[in-house]
Amino acid sequence: MKYLIIPIAALLFSCSNTNTGTNTNTDKKDPEEEPFEMPKTWEKNFSVTLYSGGGMNYESTNIFLFADSCRYVEMENGVDSIKRFVLSQAEKEEVLLKLRSFSVSNIKTIELEGTVYDKETNRICFALAPKQAFCIETGATQGIEEKEKGDFHKAYNYLVSLAKEKGK
Question: What's the pTM?
Answer without folding.
Answer: 0.77
